[in-house]
């Protein structure tokens, strides 16, 4: 039994150390499809990502106050706002996934009661952490 295990172990170790270069040949159609995929992704400048929405209100003064408060607390962090009648929305940050924003979201909850994570179209150059 010991000899069998020893031989199996030696064979396994020998097979691992004997690994060489592996070449994969693909058809021209696959190469063409991969080139098209790569070029399309390079041309795409935005992705679906996440932002933190700090306020939604139908009162422009409240929106501007929240935007000003945020800018005072976090200078240098870009603030985006939009108006989709009748609501004004103020959003901050640009994250690729929801987990990345959770730390900042918890920090913002101290000063902004209604913060929530929201999906948004984000320019790749805006992403935080890249």
List keywords for this structure.
4 helices; 130 residues; Alpha-Beta Plaits; alpha+beta
Fourth-tier CATH superfamily name of the domain at 46-123:
Sporulation related repeat
Fraction of residues in helix: 40-55%
Sequence stretches where pLDDT stays below 50 over 5 or more residues: none
- Mean pLDDT comes to 84
In order across it, which strands form the biggest sheet?
2-3-1-4
Shape: elongated
- Beta strand %: 25-35%
State the CATH class of the domain at 46-123. Alpha Beta
> What is the number of E strands?
4
Q: Distance between termini?
A: 55 Å
List the helices and strands in order: HHEHEEHE
Please describe what this structure looks like.
This protein has 130 residues and is an alpha+beta fold. It has a domain at 46-123: Alpha-Beta Plaits (2-Layer Sandwich), CATH 3.30.70.1070. It is 44% helix and 27% strand. It is built from four helices and four strands, in the order H-H-E-H-E-E-H-E. It has a four-stranded antiparallel β-sheet with strand order 2-3-1-4, covered by helices on one side. A hairpin with a 2-residue loop joins strand 2 and strand 3. The chain is elongated, with a radius of gyration of 26 Å. The model has no long low-confidence stretch (mean pLDDT 84).
């Amino acid at each position: 039994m010991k000899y069998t295990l020893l031989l199996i172990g030696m064979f396994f170790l020998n097979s691992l150390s004997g690994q060489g270069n592996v070449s994969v040949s693909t058809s021209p159609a696959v190469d063409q499809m991969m080139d098209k995929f790569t070029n399309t992704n390079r041309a795409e400048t935005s992705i679906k990502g996440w932002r933190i929405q700090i306020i939604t209100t139908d009162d422009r003064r409240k929106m501007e106050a929240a935007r000003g408060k945020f800018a005072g607390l976090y200078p240098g962090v870009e603030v985006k706002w939009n108006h989709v009648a009748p609501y004004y929305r103020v959003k901050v940050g640009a994250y690729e996934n929801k987990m990345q924003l959770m730390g900042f979201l918890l920090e913002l909850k101290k000063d902004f009661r209604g913060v929530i994570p929201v999906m948004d179209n984000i320019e790749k150059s805006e992403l935080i952490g890249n």
